[in-house]
Amino acid sequence: MITKQQTPSFLPLYEQIKRLITRSLSDGEWQPGAMIPSEMALARRYGVSQGTVRKAINELVAENMLVRRQGRGTFVATHTDDGTSYRFLHLRNLAGEQAYPQSDFIGFGRGKADAAVARRLGVRSGSALVQIQRILNLSGNAVVYDDIRLPAALLKGISSAMVEEHVNAYRGTLYSLYETQYQIRIISAEERIRATLADARVAGLLGVMEGMPLLAIERVAFTYKNQPVEWRMSYVNTENHYYFDELN
Amino acid sequence: MITKQQTPSFLPLYEQIKRLITRSLSDGEWQPGAMIPSEMALARRYGVSQGTVRKAINELVAENMLVRRQGRGTFVATHTDDGTSYRFLHLRNLAGEQAYPQSDFIGFGRGKADAAVARRLGVRSGSALVQIQRILNLSGNAVVYDDIRLPAALLKGISSAMVEEHVNAYRGTLYSLYETQYQIRIISAEERIRATLADARVAGLLGVMEGMPLLAIERVAFTYKNQPVEWRMSYVNTENHYYFDELN
DNA sequence: AAGTGGTCTAGACCACGTA
DNA sequence: ACGTGGTCTAGACCACTTG
């Protein structure tokens, strides 16, 4: 029998199991959308009881890294195909519905990180970035302009055509592109929201008057171990939509 | 021994326990800040095992209705005194710190619910409301103007002097006022955020130019069983602060 | 020392989905 | 029929807090 004392570390067993599972996820042993071994199989593999594996998995489910499906198994969360594709999109129309967005590709390019973006992404100032610009349409109206930047080192071989094809595809999210083409899985994100005025360029893209008040949302998206991967600035026209947040 | 089949409902046992605990909370059997019976005591009281009580409590802790303190006991969450007083305040300064706010009382009054507010509060249009206006200062600057409304029926006997004293008090939050004086405990809230332009009145109160872009945050706060209790509109100057949101 | 929550186990049985 | 996750139990021992 394995007891807590025999383990090298002083962490609770379920915490250690949690980290072992996380490592298998980030190492790619279990791919997005795939089923991981059953609780009993993992218990045997790690030499602990099913209850301990269960507790570890429960916490990973709460963190949206795994998905349980009763009677079928436990699966690696994915940004492709399932209903959770837009779980980071907090915009709703005035009726309170979260309409599915449709993207329009605007531009693709390369540039260097300024100090602010470099700091958020944890890279050196001036390092190479990939940039993507697009419009999000909700209910047929241009509502969001996105300016997106990622370290170029993470997306070797990316091209404008690839991005354009994926962005314009039906329900093609960028996070599913990162996941399927570059083995980068977005787990969490943080957003900083301020109010701003539309400048001439953004006003033109969103079809509003210059000087219109907009939300300016800075988002940093993270992969495993809280490593920042993507930075974006979103400008949102809130005439017919709002940002929705639940507080607990 | 009690088995699942003997229970009148088909809900899992821990769900039933959860509801029984929630009822004791909303009935006031256990007051805010007080310790609830130990897991073993509750297990005996409800005729289930400790593990089942534990699971029920775990979920209530995740919903911020209870707080565990190892070695001491499990306590009813409160908006008074402990460090969670401002857990709904998502504003940070540009350095990323969540400074503690200081409130300035602006006004108190009574009015009638318009259609929009009545809908959010689940009351009839035209029913009596209490209104409170105040300014929140962060790091010494007026950053937020709040216009707050509650059904008058919930706050019988409230007076301008009571509110003014409480609002201006050191770290006196309105939610602790509701809790201590009116037995209303705020459990959760939802916020709808839009961008707007400062009108002359709000600009004057916040000390900014008319036409400055502001966040307009509509908040509805709920007590037990998702019953809406308070509506407020906050206007936020985001020159030196931002709204921070974590996505999972 | 006593009481509390925190961890872990072993085993039973149920509910669900697939073959 | 079988395998999966979901619930529930009983009991052991640990870690922390207070008297």
From TrEMBL, chains A, B:
<dbReference type="Pfam" id="PF07702">
    <property type="entry name" value="UTRA"/>
</dbReference>
<dbReference type="GO" id="GO:0045892">
    <property type="term" value="P:negative regulation of DNA-templated transcription"/>
</dbReference>
<dbReference type="InterPro" id="IPR050679">
    <property type="entry name" value="Bact_HTH_transcr_reg"/>
</dbReference>
<dbReference type="InterPro" id="IPR036388">
    <property type="entry name" value="WH-like_DNA-bd_sf"/>
</dbReference>
<keyword id="KW-0804">Transcription</keyword>
<dbReference type="Pfam" id="PF00392">
    <property type="entry name" value="GntR"/>
</dbReference>
<dbReference type="InterPro" id="IPR028978">
    <property type="entry name" value="Chorismate_lyase_/UTRA_dom_sf"/>
</dbReference>
<dbReference type="InterPro" id="IPR011663">
    <property type="entry name" value="UTRA"/>
</dbReference>
<dbReference type="GO" id="GO:0003700">
    <property type="term" value="F:DNA-binding transcription factor activity"/>
</dbReference>
<dbReference type="InterPro" id="IPR000524">
    <property type="entry name" value="Tscrpt_reg_HTH_GntR"/>
</dbReference>
<dbReference type="InterPro" id="IPR036390">
    <property type="entry name" value="WH_DNA-bd_sf"/>
</dbReference>
<feature type="domain" description="HTH gntR-type">
    <location>
        <begin position="11"/>
        <end position="79"/>
    </location>
</feature>
<keyword id="KW-0805">Transcription regulation</keyword>
<keyword id="KW-0238">DNA-binding</keyword>
<dbReference type="GO" id="GO:0003677">
    <property type="term" value="F:DNA binding"/>
</dbReference>
<protein>
    <submittedName>
        <fullName>GntR family transcriptional regulator</fullName>
    </submittedName>
</protein>
